[in-house]
Amino acid sequence: MTIKQRFTVIIEASEEGGYHAWCPSLPGCHSQGETLEEAKKNVIEAIQCHLESLVKEGTRPRQEPEEFVGSVEVSITT
User: pTM of the prediction?
Assistant: First the structure.
């Protein structure tokens, strides 16, 4: 059986160079890459491995709640 789920992923530029990626709803699920695209590919693989280990343990991955992650523009009067 194949289970498809969406997960929020955060990818940030690292001070040392490259990118650090992680999935907030899966503690300990981190990866990295030299480029943004490589970091995205690597964190997807990390999530898959993480979920496979949960399934082997008999734990069903929980659904991530719907949320908004993005940027908003804010104006202030000075």
Answer: 0.78
**Residue corresponding to tokens 């991530």:** 64
Backbone angles phi, psi at 44, to 5 degrees: -60, -45
Tell me which DSSP letter residue 45 carries.
H
Q: DSSP class of residue 61? A: P
What is the mean predicted confidence (pLDDT) over 25-49?
95
Dist. CA 75–CA 78, nearest whole Å: 10
CATH class of 1-78: alpha beta
Query: What are the helix (H) ranges across the chain?
Result: 36-56
- Hey, where are the domains in the chain? 1-78
pLDDT of residue 68: 73
* Extended beta strands in 1-78, E state: 10-13, 19-22, 30-33
Residue type, 19: Y
